Amino acid sequence: MSEPLVVARDVKKTFVHEGKVVPVLNGVDLSVAKGEMLCVVGPSGTGKSTLLHILGTLDLPTSGSITYEGRDVTRLSSSELARFRNRTLGFVFQFHHLMPEFDALENVMMPGLVQGLPRAPLKKRARELLEEVGLAHRLAHRPGELSGGEQQRVALARALVLDPALILADEPTGNLDSRTSEQVHQLFFELNARRGTTFLIVTHSRDMAQRMPRVVTMRDGVVERDERKSETYRDRDGRQEAALDVLPPGADGSATEPSATATAADPTKPSSSRENAGESAVGDTEGDAAATSTNASDEAGNRA
Q1: N or C: which end of the chain has fewer CB atoms below 10 A?
Q2: Beta strands at 89-93 and 4-17: parallel, antiparallel or unpaired
Q3: The 166-170 sheet, strands edge to edge
Q4: What are the two backbone dihedrals, phi and then psi, of residue 155, each rounded to the nearest 5 degrees?
Q5: Residue 205 contacts by C-beta under 8 Å, 6 or more apart in sequence?
Q6: Which of 258, 273, 284 is nearest to 44 (CA)?
Q7: How many CA atoms lie within 13 A of 77 on its CB side?
Q8: pLDDT tens digits for range 29-60
Q9: What three-state secondary structure class fits 228?
Q10: pLDDT digits (tens, 9 = 90+) for 98-116
């Protein structure tokens, strides 16, 4: 396996809700290699989205460390984190967060415009990415003129425009029908194969989880299981034949500790028996981050 891109060590996160301290992450250890593709599954309220936000530096852990290629990003200032995030990471959320007043091409260009990159090469790059995700005929269309699947393809192209080392996707097909979800899933695999881009995807989709080469299952704020397929199938034919290798604690450089309350329930199904107020609170981070990005992007668009 290639060297680690990102390593989370003993990551803990607590929130205060109605005067009570709510633990969400209880010591997560996770290592993701360059070029790897993995999904994180588990019942609702287990800390999946919280972990994604922390790995994406949209939030900081209460304790523990997050290192990218040996650099502890939890020690960076807010301005340093913003620069690191914009240059190193790409995000795809369940809601596309495209700006309705801009067309597809302009939406994809926006992260580069925020950085003040030259417009001509940025436009060329955005056009190439939209062509790569199958939207060459939709360059001048605004989000309201696109289908849900097309909107997510634009969001994915936007996430790729600065050539990030890691794409973090939180329920990227949660609002799409099964046929469109399949198309987006396949696009992830193709981009990983062609570009070597690292993907970490949080999902409740059993179909997506079955096809991923690595599946990390969370429960009660810890990594319960970390499974790798000994042979990877990336299409519908024969994917059920791929066997899973369960990593023992420490096998990937991290120490996974199974929860004492683990059950045999399907980890990809939302849990109706447990609500985590802390994770509900951190879910707002996505909207806040998107709003901040929108404001900065509007300013960049005006400058452009």
Answers
A1: N
A2: unpaired
A3: 89-93, 166-170, 198-202, 37-41, 214-219, 222-229, 244-246
A4: -60, -40
A5: 173, 181, 185, 268
A6: 273
A7: 2
A8: 999 999 999 999 999 889 999 999 999 999 99
A9: strand
A10: 999 999 999 999 999 988 9
